[in-house]
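Slide 14.
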Amino acid sequence: MAGKLITSLLSRTTNLLPTIRASGQAPSASSSNSNDSEREHAHAVENDLEKLMRTLKRIKATLYDAEEREIRDHSVKLWLKELKMVSYDAEDLLSEYRYEVTRVQVEARKASQASGSQMEYIVPMPAGMVDRLKKIRIQFEEIAKDREALQLRENDGVKHPNNKISRTPTGHMVDEASIFGRGAEITEVINFLLSEKEKSFSVISIVDKGGLGKTTIAQLVYKDRRVSQCFDLLGWVCVSEEFDVRRLIKATIESVSSKIDYGLSELSPLQKELAKTVKEKTILLVLDDVWNENQSLWELFQVPLKEAKMWYKIMRKCGGLPLAVKSIASLLRHETDEEGWRKILESDLWESNPSNDIFPALQISYAHLLVYLKPCLLFCSTYPKDYILEKKNLIELWISHGYIESRGKRKITEIGVEYYEELKERSFLDDFLDQSSECCKLHDIIHDLARLNSENEHYSVEINQPIDIQEGSVPQETYHLFARGFAGYINQFLQQNLKGLRTLSMDMRGCTTCGGELEHQYCIDNTKAYITSLPNLSKYYEECWGDIGTCNLTKFEALRVLELNGYSLTKIPHTICQLKHLAYLGIISFRLKVLPLSIGLLYNLQTLILDCPFLEYLPESIGDLANLMRLVIKSDELKEVPLELINLCNLHGLTIRCNWIQALPNTIGCLSSLEELNLLPNIVNHKHDYVPHGLVNFPTIKTMKAWLRVRTIAWLKDMKDLEGKLYVEGLGNMNNLVDIQKL
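Slide 15: predicted structure.
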């Protein structure tokens, strides 16, 4: 977790430095003291950020070792906890500056549009940024010194393969009659070979200059009867300079077993097939014409040869439990060297929980999980057991918290998909389809594992009666909270000190009647009292149907993610704009009709999901969300989207699922980053003509799903990267078949 935070900080600092430098160098129209002060602050911040980056790089170099040791070493665990807390402070500070950058850019754009000329601007430093940054930098430097006392090794935790190139093949057959004077060398090699036979794995090298007969000696040793009688299997493979591990394993299987067509091409199944072929057998394998000395590539080849026996020892430790076997097997598939397998076999974590047969195997799998995947897995435990998470939403939640590390020009969502698939492949996520959407959840035991390792950072509560408010106190270490229950009770519950929350997900409900009876005892009592006391009705409403407006959201100033799900949700407080760090906002409500104008001030917002059937109006200020990457609008009442939508220059995905929208802004094609467009009317009522005018000029679109009734499809010709599904109705109305020929 700390490793992911440090990586994210380095990335964000690198991205912000050019803007800060520009603020320090920007010319001013006047020589006012305020502008001079801003430039001085910018220079001070730039210097401190550069020093901070150097310190962070030193810390990062040891984090892989620290996160491997934290399970066993309490002092390392405390060091990581301190590092995490300071990292959060630094992240908040950088987020505040990023907010100011976007705010100034949006205001400059509006001023430029109003005046017709380009406006220059200087980004002001957030209040106290210079002093706060200096304090944070000093804290990091102290933490960096402590790593030396902990003797943390520098290691990035990444294995870097390196492939090379090909030569003329050789074989084991040789004309012995043409060979003279090699008897002594051959005998020496055979004796050495037979003396090593009792070892589980041994490598004998014949090294000399080219053309001196190394291959010839190997051929004669290979054919010698003394050798063939001592081994169950014999194989000869010519390696050459082009070191292709899969080709090498294939060639080995073919050489020792005479199998030719076994239909395998991927590395993992090939390794399994080789391990199966040599299981419980002695084998002599001659590898001729070896040039490549890359250790990691050789380890990939040697794993199935060395570890066939070790595999079965490890599997026995799993006690035949399917989830344990599945988890450990997924781990072993990613461990490419003998030492890695041996560490797993001999891990003291096998004895960490004698009363639970499955937990040690899962803990070992988690301990070996790649550093950048750990926070993604732990985040899933914010939600209660059996909670279903949609794949796309989950990836965006990870992005909102900075868990996804950018790589060059690759889109961060694509990298997020890789993270998801890797967790699924390692058996940490149970993946399934739910109403055609790819979703996942955690197995109950995986959920327990994640909660154990998150140490209360991720927490969920059920608030269904007054006593839950008193007994459901949230640990101080909690950063990610899910609360489910009656709306009024949740509002009261959130009055406790939860200032540091970075995720707040609320699933709110009111009482319902079932068979003529209220499900909630508190409301039954108040309903009886209503006959004689009218004021009790307002209390009854407040306790069970309280609106989020009664909850002071502004105190959760560190929030990155806010999810509001509630039938009783009738309004969003205008003070939501004070959540400057908010990157993900999801709202599900059957009573919400409008959004506050102030929502446009959430300049750091990246994802906005509005699933509100009675939403009637979107404010024009939604066009000010300059960092928004995905917008989802689901409503049965919304009739138009604001023209200002075209200002969302970073929008990658747009979903509009509304029955009555019949036109999009004509300039919507200006969304230059848009790659995914979904225009879906409500399935239960899509008989009216759905003609979204303005659906043209989308050169970047890759995926599009829409039900359309049109008279022409000529507008499709510019969508050269289009893939996925497109449903077009009403083609009988087309009056020009030339359009089809243009596609």
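Speaker note: The longest strand covers residues 233-240.
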